[in-house]
Amino acid sequence: MPLIRTEFIIQAPVDRCFDLARSIDIHAASASQTRERAIAGRTTGLIELGETVTWEAVHFGIRQRLTARIAELERPYYFVDEMVHGAFKRFRHTHEFVAVAEGTHMIDTFDYESPFGLLGRIADALFLEKYMKRFLIRRNEYIKKMAEHGILQENPSSGEGS
Question: Where is the Coenzyme Q-binding protein COQ10 START domain (predicted)?
Answer without folding.
Answer: 42-122
